[in-house]
Amino acid sequence: MAITLVNPPGLPQIDAYRQVSIATGSKLVFIAGQVAWDADGVTVGVGDLAAQVEQCYLNVGTALAGVGASFDDVAKLTIHVVGWTPDKMPQLMEGISRAAAKLGVTPVPPGTLLGVAALDVPEHLVEVEATAIID
């Protein structure tokens, strides 16, 4: 495995993700921001943040698998949420948990959560991009 995830002493110990990833692989993989489209380009979960988060993570998983990688190889995630407010955190975490259960992983690499005004189409509420390292 090319990634080691750690929470160094002196930084907050956050359960949802790790503060630092150490990469030792030889290839960088950049996954474009994934929205809640299914394989046919149909939006999943219109109006449902948890369902869209789940689909975004499943799409990231599919993209990773397509290049011989998995969430174990992800060094960093960036999550863009339309109209982010802290009261949306339970829905975000529910979507991540549902995707993790389907993928059989616990995606906890360092991450950045950004509130944005809009995404590519009005019905998309979230977009998730990933950077991975593989050998």
From TrEMBL:
Belongs to the RutC family. GO terms for molecular function: deaminase activity. Transmembrane segments: none annotated. It comes from the Bacteria. This is Enamine deaminase RidA, house cleaning of reactive enamine intermediates, YjgF/YER057c/UK114 family. CDD domains: YjgF_YER057c_UK114_family (cd00448). InterPro entries: RutC-like_sf, YjgF/YER057c/UK114. GO terms for cellular component: cytosol.
